[in-house]
Amino acid sequence: MFFSQTVPSVRYAAIALGLIYRNYLERNSSDQLHQRRPLHNLPPDKSPLFYYNRSIQSLLNREIGDSTETTAITLLVCYLFTCFDHLAGNYVQAMKHLRGGVELSRKFDKTILDNTYDNANSSEVRALIYQVTKQIHRLDMQAVVFLVDWTPAGIQETLWPQLPPSDSAFRSLDQAADYLQIIVARVMRLHNMEQQMSSAERIQTSPSSFRATVLQQLETWSSLFGNALQQGRSGPKSYPLISLLRLQYTIAWTLLSAYGPGREMEYDNFLPQFQQCLVLADDVAAAHERYSGSLTPTFTPEIGIIPVLYIIGVKCRHPMVRREVLSILRRQPIREAVWDSISAARLVDRVIEIEEGGSSKMEIVKNMAQIPVWQRIEAMSWVQSVARVDISYTFCTRDGMHYESLMI
Q1: Which InterPro entries does the record associate with it (predicted)?
Q2: Where are the domains of the chain?
Q3: Burial level of 179, CB count in 10 A (0-12/13-18/19+)?
Q4: Res. 35: pLDDT tops 70
Q5: Cα–Cα distance between 71 and 116 in angstroms, integer?
Q6: What angle, 0 to 180 degrees and rounded to 10, lies between the N-to-C axes of helices 239-257 and 271-292?
Q7: HSE-CB of 332 using CA atoms within 13 angstroms
Q8: Side-chain half-sphere of 211: how many Cα atoms within 13 Å?
Q9: For 77-107, what is each residue's pLDDT tens digit?
Q10: Pick from 377, 298, 381, 382: which is nearest to 341 by CA?
Q11: pLDDT of residue 41
């Protein structure tokens, strides 16, 4: 708020973000759910692009002064632009802003990132840099959830900072979330690499020591998290966050543990975990509705429940679980970075059509065993535009890539 009032580039970026968010709310509240009003045709005082460009110009024209303040302002504008382009559907540009913010934050004095939870003596500017750097770091780690070829900065380094001993506890839920983001990013990188392997490469690949290391990190995280809850280190209104962290932990553990010779059939052994995730996701979705209203669209640049629900919908072949996933996704328009609940529901629905429609028996699928391994989709990727999603996918144990376009 302070920088929005005192620095033109931040003020214009904040106005641009506010206007694009209003456009998002109006678009999703109308009968024509995904009809987009041309942003370039709006009058200047209502045009998000007008203020977006003014922010860029102000940033370029800014006189070089205190390097710390300049870094803070640039990082903050980077973060606001990342949010703006996510809402505008300019995902490539959003990732460019995010990568720029990551590189800038890594060049800055790393002492800001040490002892961050007890850093009460920092100046306002340095405190802002820490806050924005922390958010950019999270977005960087989370991007691997939706970009197969994304490598978060520092993901190969030792866990930042190193996990405490398993018999201790996290100081706060915020600290627990920071650690979990890094571990989840490692799980997704491993999962994405395995999805891209050929059958021959899978046969030749021996059990990975890296997999065992990441699994151990997850187990340590779970112990620290449980100890923190037992010690009462969560506030009275933190139940939705606890459910979200448990949800993300459980789906990461499931993805990591389901690797085996049965490939897609292995997921059938983890039905209890998928059902547990569904209950947790429903809790978080209900909190969304209580906070914002049942029909009000919401947006956050961070990852929450949508990718988890997508993973459950495409990897758990239990028909009732899948239908419940669709019910939660369609309950309220939610946007999390590039994920939006309506598009995710359409993708899950199409996977169900393909897998259950290919059943050899002319009857409704009643259990997971009715979907043979060769009919199961193993890997899917997509590119989303205004009202369409272009998807590509492969079947388990079968060669060849399949392509489709889905209307949203």
Answers
A1: Transcr_Regulatory_Proteins
A2: 1-144, 268-408
A3: buried
A4: no
A5: 18
A6: 150
A7: 22
A8: 17
A9: 999 999 999 998 888 899 899 989 988 887 7
A10: 298
A11: 59
